[in-house]
Specification:
13 strands, about 40% helix, 11 helices
Length: about 300
């Protein structure tokens, strides 16, 4: 087994096509197929199934690729630190729940390193996909939150994927809404005041979606709810429908503008506030790249001095 074969397998998995992978790798399709067959024979399992529409990954292949990405990432870290090869584009990826501050930190990181020598990716996605992306090293860093309500479930998922959580900041719940909302002028907002307005939440697509929810206080029953999977759509719905969501209160005016505000959530006897611990997840035992270190630094800078 060689690093070249591992890289070939990772590339095919990312592209989903043997022909297109061969084009990107600048080798012939028969040569690529032969290399993968040799690898599969050596490890004694099929990684890919060839179909008329491309390739699919076998269950054994998913497991192999999880370790293969980890090995290749460590190789890239060594190369980044000790090689002067200027023509190699190094990759850096972040997977995150829908947080504008995570995007803001990403923007500052890209500005520092530039896109000539580096290939960047940021994925705003579902909670489970954030965990899976970092677990398979598709992304180096993931951004999620823990609370008393979801901590047990999320921590188990992290352990199962060989990940660790590092806390960045603790936040109380805020009501996030458009500046023209009837309640926008309140000093604090209780759940009873929100009964006539739709509550917005990001889709999670899982049976345990309450535990995977991005919104704090997800265990409360809301009389009116709307699901979305896009942060821009959520902002539009806030403006168009006087809807709201519950969040950390950390928003980026640089990215979202000044048309949206966060008002403290006021608890009552039945609906208690809770702490939202926002942090990042990384592979247990992995070394951060220089870009990863800078991204974490930018997160800390922004969270300590929002806006």
């Amino acid at each position: 087994m060689t690093l070249q074969q591992i890289y070939y397998a990772i590339t095919i998995a990312e592209i989903g096509s043997m022909n297109k992978a061969a084009e990107q790798l600048f080798i012939t399709q028969p040569s690529l197929t032969s290399s993968i067959k040799t690898l599969e024979n050596e490890i004694g399992t099929r990684i890919f199934l060839r179909t008329g529409k491309g390739v699919s990954i076998t269950a054994e292949g998913v497991d192999f690729l999880k370790y293969a990405r980890q090995v290749y990432q460590q190789y890239e870290i060594l190369e980044q630190r000790y090689s002067d090869k200027a023509n190699i584009k190094r990759k850096f990826g972040v997977s995150t729940q829908h947080y504008s501050f995570a995007v803001q930190a990403f923007v500052e990181t890209v500005k520092k390193f530039g896109t000539l020598k580096y290939e960047f990716a940021i994925r705003e996605t579902k909670t489970l996909e954030v965990i899976n992306d970092v677990g398979t090293l598709k992304s180096e860093i993931g951004i999620i939150y823990l609370s008393d309500y979801n901590s047990r479930i999320i921590k188990k998922l992290l352990r199962d994927n060989g990940l660790k959580f590092i806390k960045l900041i603790d936040c109380d719940a805020y009501v996030y809404l458009y500046k023209g909302h009837p309640l926008a002028g309140e000093k604090s907002i209780g759940l009873d005041q929100l009964a006539d307005y739709p509550c917005l939440a990001f889709e999670q697509g899982d049976r345990s979606s309450f535990y995977l929810s991005e919104e704090i206080l997800s265990d409360i029953e809301y009389p009116r709810t709307i699901k979305t999977n896009d942060r821009a759509s959520m902002l539009n719905l806030m403006k168009g429908l006087n809807s709201y969501t519950l969040c950390s209160g950390i928003i980026s005016e640089n990215l979202n503008g000044s048309d949206y505000i966060a008002v403290p959530f006021r608890e009552d006897e039945e609906n208690r506030n809770t702490v939202m611990s926002i942090g990042y997840v990384v592979k247990e035992g992995s070394l951060p790249t220089q870009i990863g270190e800078e991204y974490i630094n930018q997160l800390r800078i922004y969270l300590n001095n929002p806006n």
